[in-house]
Design goal:
mainly beta; single chain; 15 strands; seven-stranded mixed β-sheet; Jelly Rolls
Length: 215
């Protein structure tokens, strides 16, 4: 009886904790929950603003509306009034340059200008309890570190994101545009249901994030 009661109590406490995390993480972008297994598109972080859905080092979107001037287009103005910095992959040997580790689709949004201490939250739904490998489509001008929280608890510790810097490329700014995909940064056990995933920038920054992939 005691064992059964303790098990029910732990389940109840976990459910309450998960519910609190969901309530304090803002709302899914455009009320569209992202699913696991699958890709978590980094630019589709939760709505709710600074300190709730994300933390950014400044309030300016250094991509949308700044690097990419406001011109009435979806890509240039995507979430331009929020602090998370967002751009998109471009042609003319910018994101389709010969130093990519993997081929790159163009006109795809990504989160950039990352700095240590920044974080972004996602409401996700896990279809089936199980073990998942975590991949990442990214660039990194120097080795970086990220970590993942699950319902407010660190579930990975620091994860190394290997540099994509390439000394052969003499165009300095393009060191932030050498794309690579890490197929398996780590493996984690996830429970079925609605949860809050938080992506933390832990070390170095200087990374661009397109998507996390859970398989």
């Amino acid at each position: 009886m005691k064992t059964g009661f303790i098990t029910l109590l732990l389940i109840s406490l976990f459910a309450c904790s998960s519910t609190r995390q969901l309530a304090n993480a803002g709302k899914p972008y455009q009320n569209k929950i992202q699913y696991i297994p699958g890709r978590i598109e980094c630019e589709y972080y939760n709505e709710g603003g600074e300190g709730i859905a994300y933390h950014d080092s400044d309030s300016i979107n250094n991509g949308s509306g700044k690097l990419n001037p406001a011109n009435g287009t979806f890509l240039n103005e995507f979430r331009m009034n929020e602090g998370v910095d967002i751009s998109y992959t471009k042609a003319h040997d910018i994101d389709n340059n010969p130093y990519n580790k993997v081929p790159r689709d163009l006109d795809k949004l990504y989160v950039g200008w990352t700095k240590p201490g920044e974080w972004i939250k996602y409401t996700v739904k896990v279809d089936q309890t199980g073990d998942y490998t975590v991949g990442l489509m990214y660039t990194a001008n120097g080795d970086g570190l990220i970590s993942l929280d699950w319902d407010g608890k660190d579930i990975t510790g620091p994860l190394k994101v290997t540099s994509t810097h390439d000394n052969r490329d003499t165009v300095a700014w393009r060191q932030w545009h050498h794309w690579n995909k890490a197929d398996s940064l780590t493996k984690i056990h996830l429970q079925k249901g609605l949860h809050v995933l938080t992506l933390h920038v832990v070390g170095n920054g200087n990374m661009n994030f397109d998507y996390l992939e859970f398989k």
